[in-house]
TrEMBL record:
InterPro entries in the cross-refs: Metal_Hydrolase, Phosphotriesterase
Entry keywords, A to Z: Hydrolase, Metal-binding
Origin superkingdom: Bacteria
Family the entry assigns: Belongs to the metallo-dependent hydrolases superfamily. Phosphotriesterase family.
Protein name: Phosphotriesterase
Organism (species): Streptomyces platensis
Residues bearing the modification N6-carboxylysine: K145
Length: 323
């Protein structure tokens, strides 16, 4: 198909590209990337803590930019207040590249009515958000977010991952997985990469820092998946202090190219502009801490080359594409 782009959008690169809310970019143009975070998020599980203030999101992006940040991957999936229509303006005004997500979280984050409504053709929903745009007219999503459960996968998780695998095959998009308390990594890989035949390097496992089982980390990296160590600034994570050594163990075992880092701001109180660590923490305190253990060169790779590879997809060569 001929590659068309409106005059105000960048022309899509021919090979692997990262699909931002302002258009497709070459992976090398991604820059310093927060590989898992949220500008907008709403869930019945976090009442009163919604990330739903566009001006606070803009301020957080400016603070991240001032700390040297260039790109944010927002892992907020369908139906959780991701405010996709706001994202292009926020990206343009802040100068920070933003990738939005499609996909579905655990059932507990939704009403039964919503799950029934989208359940009939989940893969179709994911594909259309990745290729046509979110809500039909919004920016296109650049990744698929799904979720496992605590040390296992329920029916909803299996159904969602099956749809994600189908959408992955159709578009080439990466699948980012919320692991409940960091557990279930190998169950997820058995399903996604075993049963459903998703290439392991299209899978990004999130929250592994919450379960510092280095044997499981190594097995997941050895299978070829990306490991995202996110949310090092969340006070309720008793495992935060294990993160640098866990990452170092992976790097020592030869898996430095599988490691991603992110902030995972999920509540209004956690934003830096509200006095919390927020997105800048990743590039100030957390990067500094990782550099002490791993050296600056490796940490720069975790923030640039690795996310550039993990989130790039061969959109044009995948079976389903439009525009
Ligand atoms: Zn998250």
């Amino acid at each position: 198909m001929v590659n068309r782009a409106p005059a105000d959008e960048p022309v899509a690169p021919a090979s692997p590209a990262i699909r931002t809310v302002l258009g497709d970019i070459a992976p090398a143009d991604l820059g310093i990337c927060d590989a898992h975070d949220h500008l907008f998020l709403r869930s019945p599980q976090l009442p009163g803590q919604e990330l739903d203030d566009a001006e606070a999101a803009a301020a957080e992006l400016s603070a991240f930019r001032a700390a040297g940040g260039a790109a944010v991957i927002q892992w907020t999936p369908y139906g959780m207040g991701r405010r996709a229509a706001e994202l292009p303006r926020l990206a343009r005004e802040s100068g920070v590249r933003i990738v939005s997500a499609t996909g579905l979280h655990q059932a507990a984050h939704y009403s039964p009515e919503l799950l029934t409504r989208v359940g009939a053709d989940l893969a179709g929903l994911f594909v259309s958000e990745l290729t046509e745009g979110i809500g039909g007219t919004g920016p296109r999503a650049g990744m698929i977010k799904v979720a496992g459960g605590f040390h296992g996968l329920d029916r909803h998780a299996r159904q969602t991952m099956t749809a994600a695998a189908e959408a992955q095959r159709a578009t080439g998009a990466a699948i980012g997985v919320h692991l409940e308390l960091g557990t279930g990594a190998l169950d997820v890989l058995d399903l996604l990469c075993g049963t459903l035949a998703v290439p392991p390097d299209r899978v990004i496992l999130g929250h592994l820092n919450r379960s510092p089982d280095l044997v499981v980390h190594r097995a997941a990296a050895g299978a070829g998946a990306y490991l995202a160590f996110d949310g090092p600034s969340r006070a309720h994570h008793a495992t935060d202090w294990r993160l640098p050594e866990a990452v170092a163990a992976l790097a020592d075992a030869g898996f430095a190219d599988r490691i991603l880092v992110g902030g995972d701001t999920t509540t209004a109180g956690a934003r830096s502009v509200n006095g919390g660590p927020g997105m800048p923490y990743l590039l100030c305190r957390h990067r500094e801490r990782l550099v002490r253990t791993l050296g600056a060169d490796l940490v720069t790779r975790f923030l640039t080359a690795n996310p550039a590879r993990a989130f790039a997809a061969d959109w044009a060569r995948a079976p389903h594409h439009s525009r």
